[in-house]
């Protein structure tokens, strides 16, 4: 098991890619602490993880609340003694074309997707620096690299995550911390599954593989980057997109 006895915190892990990542990490031997803002979904996910034999903690915590994330970090350390991996997965969308986008929708996406990543990373990086080791992984997107119609706010945050990833890799490497990002393409999350069939078919046609990704595909990328197999990889962005941007 590639993550045996590692301690991981995954934000936004009650469903979708975050949940798939938690399942993958548990199956790879990690102890996993998951956070989200919906306690019912959290409890359901925890039940699944424990059924797999995983050691799991869960917290209803908002990535915008520094005090809540600090409490998560302190509690995980008190129970498990360390934090090896942070996966910044929590994120939202509020799509609209530039000329129609409200300031409120711009600000809230920037807050969660960009400042939330900054807040969680700053808190957990201090813990990892004291340990002399750690891995920080963040969710970017192909949208952050290439842009996308109607997603000014989302694209800005995902490009910002790449910039922060590369900056933190330079700053934190000497402290034994690796920092990378994953850039998913069209992934068949519960939200995407609700889209009309014609939209899903359009997404499939854009990929040379003529398929949509699964949350597990992204989880596999996170597991690789978190493992010792990626010990010499930092400051990179791993695209998991089925070639959709080729």
From TrEMBL:
Residues 6-185 form the Ketoreductase domain. It holds the Pfam family adh_short_C2. GO terms for biological process: monocarboxylic acid metabolic process; steroid metabolic process. InterPro entries: KR_dom (IPR057326), NAD(P)-bd_dom_sf (IPR036291), Sc_DH/Rdtase_CS (IPR020904), SDR (IPR050259), SDR_fam (IPR002347). Keywords: Lipid metabolism, NADP, Oxidoreductase, Steroid metabolism. One of its GO terms (molecular function) is oxidoreductase activity. Belongs to the short-chain dehydrogenases/reductases (SDR) family. NCBIfam families: PRK05653.1-3 (NF004198), PRK07231.1 (NF005559), PRK12826.1-2 (NF009466). This is 3-oxoacyl-[acyl-carrier-protein] reductase. It comes from Anaerovirgula multivorans.
């Amino acid at each position: 098991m590639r993550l045996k006895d590692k301690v991981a915190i995954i934000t936004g892990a009650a469903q979708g890619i975050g949940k798939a990542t938690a399942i993958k990490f548990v199956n790879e031997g990690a102890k996993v602490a998951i956070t989200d803002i919906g306690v019912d979904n959290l409890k359901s996910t925890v039940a699944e993880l424990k059924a797999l034999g995983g050691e799991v903690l869960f917290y209803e915590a908002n990535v915008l609340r520094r005090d809540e994330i600090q409490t998560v970090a302190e509690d995980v350390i008190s129970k498990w003694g360390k934090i090896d991996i942070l996966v910044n997965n929590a994120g939202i969308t509020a799509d609209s074309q530039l000329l129609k986008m409200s300031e409120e929708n711009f600000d809230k996406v920037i807050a969660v997707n960009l400042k939330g990543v900054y807040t969680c990373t700053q808190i957990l990086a201090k813990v990892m620096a004291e340990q002399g080791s750690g891995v920080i992984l963040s969710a970017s997107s192909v949208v952050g690299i290439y842009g996308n119609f109607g997603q000014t706010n989302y694209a800005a945050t995902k490009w910002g995550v790449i910039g922060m990833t590369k900056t933190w890799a330079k700053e934190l490497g000497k402290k034994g911390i690796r920092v990378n990002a994953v850039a998913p393409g069209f992934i068949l999350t519960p939200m995407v599954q609700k889209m009309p069939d014609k939209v899903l078919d359009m997404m499939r046609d854009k990929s040379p593989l003529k398929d949509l990704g699964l949350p597990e595909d992204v989880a596999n990328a996170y597991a690789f980057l978190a493992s010792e197999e990626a010990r010499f990889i930092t400051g990179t962005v791993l695209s998991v997109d089925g070639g959709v941007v080729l």
